[in-house]
Design a protein that fits this description.
Layout: H1 3-27, H2 33-56, H3 62-85, H4 92-112, H5 122-140, H6 142-168
């Protein structure tokens, strides 16, 4: 494996380590907002950078795109599930994120095959950006934003459901 590909893989895989760190901090009662917020920002930055690095270093691959997607959903679902367990957001939010990712993975495999990598969508990408923003906001201000997040959770659910419908509309048997 070339050095560039290793760098990109490590940048993506960092989100798995950060998810484990989030769990460890949460369950050892070290819920310090600046620490959790920093973890969330580093996770978002690694997501922002890995694809750009892969293109810049010319080491793009289907495997790298799958690693990126799995790292994203792992970090996001872990963080949102933990926030949900504290009551900051409803439990259906991380559940819908997991369902949306499952649909994304399955239909990418069915429509494109494993060698093409995940097939993105506009609303799915937007939902991913919103997810990182939500995790960052909850990390820095869980008490302040908790009520607001619970109030806007139905809107997030509509976004996730719309992303699912957008994906399903592209199925060949749907046309």
């Amino acid at each position: 494996m070339r050095a560039g590909a290793i760098l990109v893989a490590v940048t993506s895989a960092l989100r798995f380590v950060l998810a484990a760190g989030w769990i460890a901090l949460w369950y050892t009662a070290r819920r310090d907002p600046p620490v959790l917020g920093s973890i969330a920002i580093v996770a978002a930055a690694s997501d922002f950078l890995d694809g750009r690095l892969a293109r810049m270093l010319r080491v793009e691959s289907a495997g790298g795109r799958w690693l990126d997607a799995l790292a994203d959903v792992t970090f996001i679902v872990v963080a949102l599930a933990i926030e949900s367990s504290s009551g900051a957001i409803p439990a259906y939010i991380p559940l819908l994120v997991a369902i949306l990712f499952t649909q994304y993975a399955l239909d990418s495999l069915i429509l494109g095959g494993p060698r093409t990598g995940p097939i993105g969508s506009r609303l799915g990408h937007f939902a991913g950006v919103v997810n990182f923003g939500l995790v960052i906001a909850l990390a820095f201000a869980p008490a302040t934003l908790g009520r607001l997040m619970r109030d806007i959770a139905p809107l997030l659910a509509v976004l996730y459901l719309a992303a699912m419908v957008e994906r399903a509309a592209r199925y060949p048997w749907h046309a």
